[in-house]
Amino acid sequence: MNDASPALPRTLGASITHEIRRMLVEGELVPGQRLSEAALADSLNISRNTLREAFRVLTREGLLKHEPNRGVTVAEPDMASIIDIYRVRRFIECKALAQGYPKHPGALHMREAVEAGIHARAHKDWVAVGTANMMFHTAIVELADSPRLEVFYGQMSAELRLAFGLLNDPEFLHLPYVDMNASILRSLEEGRAEEATQLLEAYLVQSERTVLAAYERRMRR
Fold this sequence. Notes:
Elements: H1 12-25, E1 34-35, H2 37-44, H3 48-60, E2 64-67, E3 71-74, H4 79-98, H5 105-122, H6 126-142, H7 147-165, H8 170-189, H9 193-220
Antiparallel strand pairs: 1-3, 2-3
């Protein structure tokens, strides 16, 4: 029996929540940024009540922070959160990649993300390089064939991009991973999923160290 059912249409509040989460994932909103309720509601063409509904959801997810008399700001991940994010990434991404195969739709999306990253690098658009990198890792999770896992990872991706935002040099952060992504993809496309997984494990260790070092420098200021 096929128990698949069509996705239910999103409410307006859920759609706005998704849109703000996308803005976080793509680096349009950065850690510590104060959000003007009036300006954001106007730009999204929605009521303030609808925006507040989205704010409440994203605050529960730890992506936004509400402070009395200060309003809403974009959250700044702490060191414990960063360590936990990478622990979860290794658990999810490495297992997904290990079972991947070249013709899987996720592998095709990995290819699209690698090409987008190379194109953005050629134009020195480092924010776009970072977004392509997020697309690449989202595509890896697709290899697990779990819609629930994809939804969970999508939420975590926004928190991950905030961790990246702690490093105010997107070129330094993202440049090395364009070629690393290409190497992981090449191994998967050539049927060497185990090798691709080993490359990804080393990649995530290096990325975690880079972000944690940036966090420590930020805290010393």
